[in-house]
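User: Teach me something about this protein's shape.
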Amino acid sequence: MIASRLLTRAVRHPSNSVERALLAAAAFDAAVRAPLVLVGGAAQMIHTGSERLTDIDMVGPIDPRDRVSLAGLGFVRDGRHWVFGWAMRRSPSRCRPRSC
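Assistant: First, the predicted structure itself:
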């Protein structure tokens, strides 16, 4: 599977590297069936040429089959967010039930 190979490559990079974050995002994108859209700071970074990446935000539909695939790769649902095990958010989820 392409997604698992991307994650294997990602863990070879330092934990705070842009390469690691981008490979994890590519793995997430490869694991879901619908197209995702890059938004937020990462999109701004690409547009402006900045090199300060803190996280990667993508939006798009995730269906039940995608959830199984993502969980199998090691992505964890944190409220309305999906994060990879070594990239867990430190803040508690502020997502209300039904809005996730």
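Now, about its shape. The mean pLDDT is 79. Residues 2-87 form one domain. If you'd like, I can walk through any region in more detail.
User: That's plenty for now, thanks!
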